[in-house]
Amino acid sequence: MNKPLPPEAGLEALRALLRERSPLGPLKAMTKYTGYLFQIPMKGFQPYVVYGAEANRKALVTERDKVLWRNTDPVTDLLKHGVLIVDGDEHDRYRELMEPALHPSALSGYTPLILRHTENVSAQWQDGSIMDMLVESRKIALLIIMDALFSKDVTADIPRIWHPILKAIEYISPGAWILWRKIPRPGFRKPLQELDEYLFGIIEERRKKKEGKRDLLQHLIDAGLSDQIIRDQMLTMMIAGHDTSTALLAWVFALLGQHPDIHKKLVDEVDTLDKSPLLDQVIKEALRLYPPIHIGNRRVAENLTFAEGTVPAGERLFYSIYLTHHDEKIWENAESFCPARFAHGRKTPPFSYVPFGGGPRACIGAAFGQAEARIVLSHLLKSHTFEFTCHKIHAHMGATLEPRPGVNMKVTKRIENRE
User: pLDDT at position 347, please?
Assistant: First the structure.
């Protein structure tokens, strides 16, 4: 595992970085010369990288107690005691409180509001205009998550909260702080404070009401949690919940735009069937190629042994869902967009497909996010045509894996849906 990489590995990694403009390219290039466990050979920064089914099983389930959040990273500073990043009994308690609102049995109740917000956003599109579906997907996802979980219609508040939300996402995205932990970041102080004030305002407003709505926010209040802890859960769901949905929706539009044959087949299917098997396959394949949460940035609390070596306690560990999903040993034609690989309920080897993690810490909103995507995409494909106008897009490693510089599409209302 610790053998020096040959010179050609470094050259190939550099070429991949220049070609793809993302660290994903160099990581993939390095796997040609390594096993499933390796170190990044940079001066002053040598984290371990692990991927594959065994790695996922250990990091997510069997030895998850050894793989902890780094308490010095921006995500822990921002989300504090959010369910996403706390461990042990505290995590289990918050998750138990939050699961009912996101349980599959509750999803049908969200369908009307998902459709309403999708229709309201798409109604603003000028016929024949070029829209960035990354931006439009973010609007839709943000409106849905805030209404579904907190009964808050933020339509009128978007001009106020849009910039703070984007700054919060930027704050936790990979950046120079990975190399220089104490690097000053004064530009984030004001927008993050504005976001806090907005969320505390929602909590205060709800506490003043004698009868609250039966939503996640009310459930947290009734559980006797402090305003700070409620804020932590709200911000976790607001950021993680809408940003992952944004990435998924945007990638589906990008992939359909790049594959017009599949796009046409999907439109024909959603027009004629109440349930579209192909739509489910497209969503699953988008999650395979571009899993929103593409990598785990953790600290190893105790020595962690894999088949190819041991990661010492105290070291930084990246477990890469992206590399697992692009492993040619698992996936035939791994770089190709092939929704049919998920046809007929085809099974994948355990822990080889983990877009929502796995085990006790699997994404709490996985069922919600997939149902939301099906409803939004089905409605928009029925109501509008989308013509891809992008040239080159690449996967940007932010808080989630999203298409940059965006997904520009010419949007036209379908004739049969014109009023």
Answer: 83
pLDDT at 419: 42
Token pair in block for residue 262: 């599949």
Ordered structural domains, the chain, with CATH: 35-417 (1.10.630.10)
- What are residue 304's DSSP bridge partners? 311
Q: Count Cβ atoms within 10 A of the Cβ of residue 416 and give its class: 0-12 exposed, 13-18 middle, 19 or more buried.
A: exposed
- CA 81, 87, 88, 93 torsion: positive or negative? positive
- pLDDT score at 341: 95
3-state SS record for the chain: CCCCCCHHHHHHHHHHHHHHCCCHHHHHHHHCCCCCEEECCECCECCEEECCHHHHHHHHHHCHHHEEECCCCHHHHHHCCCCCCCCHHHHHHHHHHHHHHHCHHHHHHHHHHHHHHHHHHHCCCCCCEEEEHHHHHHHHHHHHHHHHHHCCCCHHHHHHHHHHHHHHHHHHCCCHHHCCCCCCCHHHHHHHHHHHHHHHHHHHHHHHCCCCCCCHHHHHHHCCCCHHHHHHHHHHHHHHHHHHHHHHHHHHHHHHHHCHHHHHHHHHHHHHCCCCHHHHHHHHHHHHHCCCCCEEEEEECCCEEECCEEECCCCEEEEEHHHHHCCCCCCCCCCCCCHHHHHHHCCCCCCCCCECECHHHCCCCHHHHHHHHHHHHHHHHHHEEEEECCCCCEEEECCCEEEECCCEEEEEECHHHCC
Buried b (16+ CB within 10 A) or exposed e, 133-162: bbebbbbbbbbbbbbbbbbbebeeeeeebe
User: For residue 385, what are its two tokens?
Assistant: 């045509």
What is the distance between the alpha carbons of residues 204 and 208, in angstroms, rounded to a whole number? 6
CA max distance for the chain: 68
What pLDDT is recorded for position 346? 79
Distance, in Å, from the CA atom of 279 to the CA atom of 326, rounded to the nearest integer, reads 21
Regions in the chain scoring below 70 on pLDDT: 1-11, 13-14, 16-21, 72, 175-184, 212, 416-419
Task: Give the C-alpha distances (Å, rounded to integers) separating 363 from 84, 250, 419.
Answer: 8, 20, 40
Distance CA 121, CA 147 (A): 14
